[in-house]
Structures are given as structure tokens and as C-alpha cells.
Amino acid sequence: MKKIVLLSGLLAFAVQADDGSASEKNAVEGFYAGLGICWNHSINKIKATDAVDNNGAVDWFGDDILHKKSDKIGGSLVAGYGEFITGNFYLGGEITLDIAGNKTSDVTYELKAIGTNECHTKVKGFIPSVALRLGGWCCPIDSLVYVRLGLAWVKAEYQEKDTDYVNDVRKLNKVSPVIGLGIEKNVYGNINVRAECDYRFQVKKEDKTSMKDNSYSYNVENRLKGFTVRLMATYKF
Asked: Residue 193's closest CA among 223, 234, 152?
């Protein structure tokens, strides 16, 4: 909620600013495409709960959550359309593709009945998204200030190193809500540069896994969230 209030305040400031130069405002209107670099930060959490042995005994794990943070630098592609629809208010839509490579890591957690268990995780760095851009012209810096509201497709894989499990490979494949803030400035002709940051809200998936001999089973909840920072150049057609 704090993120939404802060971004709304910044957007209101931009929309209430005076009109900027016609040529610079025109440079951010219309169809555009661009590319740049991105920094993708993901927080991957794993929680094991409700473990049950073949006698029906419940082995609770409480709120213990193991997590791994991953950072990857890669590239971004963007294409979209936008225009000033009423005076100083800007509305646009775009498709973005972040390609930052996969991040692999291992996590270890304790199961009271069978001891230590290891899980190999892979957070996919291929993240497509769609978003609306809502903003306004900020005259003091002659730039477009905008908020991004959209959806991102995130993926991750989890593989138990112990092959005695029935469900030893789990996949998280979800659409995550996105909110972001950015600034775009015309630098020459139809060429603009922009900097922005998107926050991807947490998504989760719960799977049940068990030993192949049915001696033990438990639930595993996988959670994924993160943010992406981009620096891009775009060309208006």
C-alpha cells in the first residue's frame, strides 16, 4: 500500500506541472521501440509444512521459511504506443521482455522424520510483461514521469536432490502483478532515454510431495517476488 501511495503522489505532481516544449512532448508520443540493460533481483522462498508419516503423525514446521536472493544483469526489449490524451496527462501501453539469464542455487531444510533435505532451485530470467504507462510532463526537468501498472510472467523450478521422492521436480509458472515508476527524456530527434524500476508482487504455489515408499509426505510452498531496474533507449517512429 505504501508503494502505491508514494507512486500516486509522484504521478500527481507530474500531471499538475506546466506544459513543456511541444517538440520534446511530441517525441514521446506515438509508436516506439527500444532496448537497454536490466538488473533483475528475485527473492525465492520455500516453506515446508504439514509433514505426515505413514502412521498419521503430523510433524509441523511452523513458520520457518528458507529463502535465496538472486541478482542477474541482462538485456531488455520494449515496444509500445502512448500519447497525451488530455492536456498534460499521458496514457500508453507496452510490451517488455527482460532477458537476464537463469539463477540457480541450493537450499537445505530439516525434516524431523527423515533428516536434512536439499533442493536445487532455478529462477528463470526470461520475464515478459505487459503494462500501462500513466503519467504527465514534468516541466522543471522537461521529462515524462510515469507509473507502470501491469502483469509479468515469472517461472521457477525446484528439484529435490533426493530421488526417493515421487514429486521430485516442481514448477512455479505464474502471472505476477507489477507496479513501477519511470522517467523518460528526449535526447536527440526521435531518440529518448528512460530509467525505470518495476516491483513484482509475490506469487506462490503449493505442491505435495512424498516418498516413493509412501512412508512420508509433506507440503511445500514456493514463493517468488522481486524487482527489475532498466535503463533503455527508445526510438519514436
From this structure: 234
> Is the model's pLDDT at 222 over the cut of 70?
yes
Looking at residue 108, the DSSP 8-state letter turns out to be E
- Provide the Cα torsion 50, 53, 59, 63; round to 10°: -30
- Interior angle at CA 139, CA 3 and CA 181, nearest 5: 20
Cβ proximity of 227 and 198 under 8 Å: yes
Q: Is the pLDDT of residue 35 over 80?
A: yes
Q: Which helix (H) or strand (E) holds 44?
A: strand 30-53
The residues that bridge with 198 in the sheet, in sequence order, are 180, 228
DSSP assigned state of 141: G
| Alpha carbons 236 and 114: distance in angstroms, whole number | 60
Q: What 8-state DSSP symbol labels residue 167?
A: S
The half-sphere exposure of 55 on its side-chain side, counting CA atoms within 13 A, is 3
Q: Are 95 and 150 spatial neighbours (Cβ–Cβ below 8 Å)?
A: no
State the DSSP code for 24: H
Query: Per residue in 80-104, pLDDT tens?
Result: 999 998 878 899 999 999 998 776 6
Residue 8 vs residues 15, 52, 126, 178, 190: alpha-carbon distances, Å:
11, 47, 29, 14, 28
